[in-house]
Every structure is written in structure tokens, then in C-alpha cells.
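Ticket opened by: R.M.
Priority: normal
Category: complex prediction / small molecule

The reporter submitted a protein together with (2S,3S)-3-hydroxy-2-methylbutanoyl-COA and asked that the result be attached to this ticket for the collaborator who will pick it up next week. Submitted input follows.
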Amino acid sequence: MPGPALTWELADGVAIVTFDLKDSPVNKFSRAVKDEFLATFTALEQDRAVRAIAVFSGKPDNFIAGADIEEFVTIGSAAEAERLAAEGQEMMDRVTRFPKPVAVGIHGACLGGGLEFALACHYRVATDHPKTQLGLPEVQLGILPGASGCQRLPRLIGARAALDIILAGRSERAPKAFRLGMVDELVHPAILQDITIAAARRLADGWRPRRRRPGGVLAWLLDRNPLGRRLVFRTARRQVLERTKGHYPAPLAALEAVEHGLKHGMAEGLKREARLFGQLAVTDVSRKLVQIFFATTQLKKDFGLPNAPPPTAVQRLAIVGAGFMGSGIAGTAIVQAGVDVRMKDADLPRVAKGLAAARALLDDRLRRRRIAKYEYARLAALLSGGDGYAGFGRADLVIEAVFEDLSVKQQVLREVEAAARDDAVFASNTSTIPIARIAEAARRPERVIGMHFFSPVDRMPLLEVIPAARTAPGVVSTAVGFGRRLGKTVIVVKDSPGFWVNRILAPYANEVGHLLAEGASIEEIDAAAVGFGFPVGPVTLLDEVGLDVAEKVSQVMGAAFGERLQATAGVTALVKAGRLGRKSGRGFYRYGGGKKRGVDPAVYELLGVHPNGGPRLAEILQRLVDGMLNEAARAVGDGVVGTPRDGDIGAIFGFGFPPFRGGPLRHADDLGAARLVAELERLAERYGPRFAPCEVLQEQARRGSKFYP
Ligand code: T1G
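Result attached by the on-call engineer:
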């Protein structure tokens, strides 16, 4: 009887099992699916005609995405979650002990419980396709691999390599997974079935694969003797604490599960693994990380408009401005989307520099073995440039990344309109100038939109897409769709000063000036924010963004919103003194050899301030965070983002708002509007009206409502 997920047929002694979960884009393990697996394996065991088993996915590009996350979030208690993990472990154990050989053919994502299943099988074949990725992403959801992954992976590939994957929640492409020993064979997708079935048959005939254990003196020293292992775990623990600053319990728990299992044996390890899984599954951190997972998957399908028309596929991109942003966009477009890119700047030396910078991203891919030599040659040939608009007539999308000045951008827009097709989209990569203002110069304002990339473009995951009042809906879809092809998480935001990210960063960055003036030290300000969970503090962030850029943004914000978002004079003084932040080797901090070298005491003198204790750390933190939450709430009220979800994802992916807090709006909900309003009122009384609680929060406090119902 076919169930909702599994079917099988017999081919010359081998049962070919196909996992294809109905009504779902991916295969995943739920309780029902697990029961069906067990029933199927029982049937296969009893069927005398079956000598061996080969398991495949029926999905075109997905093997198994792991446990069903929607099911596991409904778990109410640690004990119930522990039981769920133990049941998963039993199923994997059943597979491993199965009296007939089980081989798997893996194509597409093989993650979490999916990889745990593959590890439990007796032989693994994977396609060398880019979609085939193997990994244990559980810690990214605040949990750990709970169906025996913490035990099986280190036993197969060694403790060090397994910890690299488990503690970071990493996925490896198939070739790397093969090198690590996670899979036994790597094949072209066309022969996956044949090779896997042949392997199953050979296993049934008594053949045993010889697995080379991770070799070398180092492996012997570190993976296979207790003293070496202790060193491995001590180092890993230290690295985890450096990275998570104690905010994320999952990696440490996973480390414990692995270590315990290697010390006390598989059975004890499994018990510990299930227990820790149970504890983690009901933590607030895990809930928040799971919400972020679902928010990002929803965003993959959301074009920011109701009934959005389908996007036009961009084949050819043209970019005006071959500077840091322009070349970053060019390189990312080639590497991620494989589109043809034409760059233009005022003179050829600048163009050459931009092309070289874009190509550096390709070089990096080649060096890290992400692309092959022939692929490199093909991609490099997509890139070209010049000092005129030649080639722009073929572009579907033109992005300008020129100097941040309205009249310069309008001039570029006019020139592009003269050179490009009528149906081409013109996108401005401005961080501050309203798109509607730029579009005033347009003959076809409905084709004009904003695409605000963050720097460095290849590494920053967020893109803000900004339609102006007259932008056509299809243009919005096209910009969003292209941003996604670049691998970005895209939010569509309203055309208003600072858009979303710079709007809510403004009070946070401005507060630095006030705090310094009151005697706080640069280190204390940064430490307060880092302690809260930001990747860097606001002072370091200013240095990273560039103080000249920050100055420009803050002038725009001050002009648009008046006193509330008025910056103090500090940054301007530093810019005048030639301190532009990291890129110029000095800002608030000094930089050398690519590293931050500590605060430059001369900065205090330049600013005319003296660190003398100043406000306490808790007070610093409250001023930094509450100011941001207040502005975020106000911006939601102004309709800058369509949903709280977009606002939270924008803050997390845009500047690293601590993911375990779920984003500024979730965090505001957690504090509660009444408490936040009371804190802001106190701050306003003490430090000025910039802290006055906004209408949205006051209304929420009165009605006891929240951003997320
Ligand atoms: N559970 C539930 N739904 C899932 C899912 C999962 N594991 N994976 C994907 N989906 C849904 C997703 O919400 C979306 O739904 C649709 O599938 C398509 O996804 C015991 C405890 C597999 C690489 O963390 O990384 O195993 O919006 O748009 O871009 O140790 O999804 O269509 O309704 O993202 O092609 C560990 C999470 C689980 C993998 C596919 N596994 N998924 O990417 O499609 S914990 C994960 C992904 C675990 C064991 C433990 C990606 C993908 P809808 P999509 P995609």
C-alpha cells in the first residue's frame, strides 16, 4: 500500500525505494514519514526477493531537507523533544542494523536528519551537481543534530572535520563532502541511479567498501588518541565562545554531545545527544532562529506587492560607476547569476580598476575551488567595460553606482535613457537620495527604481529595493528577482529618507556623539553593543561604513527629520582631519595590516572630549538600543516596511541585529510596549526629546498590542 511518501519497486533483487513527500516542495521527516519508513523497511526485510536496497529522492533538486521544522516547533516540553530525538535515533539504528545492504543516491540538499539518514546507510553516492549539498544546519536553528548525527559524523570523518561542520551548521558541496569522506562516490547526475543500484547489488554479493580513515600523522595525533582529542575539544570550545559570546547554547551543547559519545561510546553519546536536543528545542533562542528561517523562506517568494507580475529575467546587466560599489555589484552578478556585465566610468583607468576588482571575486572563487578553470574562463569573459555607453543598448537592467549627488545621478539617468532600450530598468544604488527625486529627470519614470546594496556587496546578504511612487509593478518584480539571483535576501521598502536600514541606524549612530561628549569611552560604547549581541559596536560600524559616507547619510537624515535625528559634529570633525575610517587606515580606531589596532587617543582631543567614566554600561546600552527600537517602531508607523517581518529581517541581515533576539520589532514585543515607553520617557526627561516615545509604541502600550499578534 503506497503511503504519503514512499514507494518501491523491485529490479533484479534490488528494491528501489523512492522518497517523494506529497504536497511538499522538499522531502522531510515527520512522525508520519518516520513510521512509513519503519513499515517499509519491515516489508523489505520480510520480502525474500529483496537482496539489497537503494534509496532515492523523487524530488528534482532535493534529497531530504531534514526533520520537519514545522512539526518540531509544536513541541511543548523538553521531555517530548528528547523522545522525538530518541525515536529518530532508533529509526537510524534500524537502518544501520538492517540485515540487507542499504545504499543511497543523493542529489540535491541533504541536510540535518537527511544527512543523518544517509550516514546510517551502508553506502553513499552523491552527484557532483552544485545543488547537492550535505550538512548539519541544526545549530543555525538553535538545536543540534539529534538523530545520531553528533555520533555518526565524527566516527566517519574524524572529530575535527565533524566539529567544523556541526558547530557552524555548515553545508558542504558534494566534491568537498567526498574529499572529507562523507560520501563514498561522486558521480554525474545522469548515472546516479545506475551506480547506486550497482553498489547495492555488489554489497549484497558480499563486497565491502574499503574506507580510508582520515589519514596522516595529524589525524592520528588529534582524532585518534584521547590526549589529542582533548586538545581538539578545548580549542573548539574556545572558538565557539569567541564567536557566540555565550549567546547561543546550541554549538556548546553539540560539542558536548560529540565529546561525550567519543569518550563513553555510542550508546551513551546518543542518550546525551537526545537529552541536549530536548533542552535546546524549547529554548527561546531556538524559537527565534526558527522564526527567522521561516521569515527568510517566505521572503524568497514575496515580491513586495500584492499580485506582483512575474519578473523579467535579466540576461545583461550594465553598471555606471566602476568604483567600490559598482565593481562589487559587477563581480557578484557574474559569480552568482552568470550574467553578461558591461561597466562604464568616466575614463579608462577607472574602468580598468573596476574590472580588476570585479574579477578579484572570480579569482577568489577559483582559489577556493568553488569553480573550475574552464568555468572561470567562461565567467571572466562575461565582464567588459568602457568609457562610453557602448553595449548599454542590450542591457535589461542598468544600475548606477556613481557619486552620491542628486544632479550627478540625474545626469547619468538622462544619458542612460538615451543609450538604453525603452524597456530597460534603471536602478539607482543610492543609500540616501529619494528615488522619486532622481526619477524627476526621467523620460520613463515608471522604469526607475532603487536597489540599495550594502558594502562589501559580495558579502553583505541584504538588498533594499525601493520603488518610487510611479515605478511600474513589473519593474519591482524584476529588481527583486534579480537581487535574489545575486543570493540576496530582499526587502521592498518605501521611498523615504534612509529607507529602512539607515533610518533605524541613525539614532544608534548619533548616540555615539552624545555618549562621547558625556565622557564615555569608545571601547565602552562598542563593548555595550557587542555584549547585547551586535557583531560590532556602533563606533566600529561607523569606521567600517566610512566616516565620509556616514556623515553624508546623517546630513540627509538630519535635514529630513530635524532635531530628532540630528548628528553631533563629531564625525564631521574626524572627516575634516582626514580620518575616513578603516579604508583610510584611521577613523575612531587605527588600522594596520588589515586589522583594527585599538582606539586612537588623538580622537578624543580632536573631538574635545575626555573619557572620564561617563554613563554606566547598562545606561549606554539602553540609550543605544531603545533609540533604535523607537525609530524602528516609528518607521513601521510610516509604512517604511510592509510587515514587521521585513523590518526584522532587514535589521538582522543589514547590520547584524542579534538574530537570537529576533530583530528590533520582536525585541520590542518581548520587552513590551509599556515598559519600552516608560524607559523612553525616562531617557527623554534625562537626555532630551530625541528619546520621546513614538505614537506607535504609545498606542501599543495603551492597547496592550504588539507588532506580531
Ligand atoms: N522542515 C519544514 N519545512 C521545510 C524544511 C524543513 N526541514 N526545509 C524546507 N522547508 C520548506 C520551506 O519552508 C519552504 O516552504 C519549502 O520547503 C521550500 O524551501 C533530527 C532536528 C532544503 C536548502 O535546517 O535549508 O533535521 O514556503 O524555499 O531555496 O537532527 O529549505 O514552500 O511552504 O527554502 O530550494 C534541518 C532547512 C532540520 C534545512 C531548500 N534542516 N531548509 O531551499 O527552497 S532539523 C534544515 C533549507 C533536523 C535532526 C534535526 C532549504 C533547502 P514553503 P525553500 P530552496
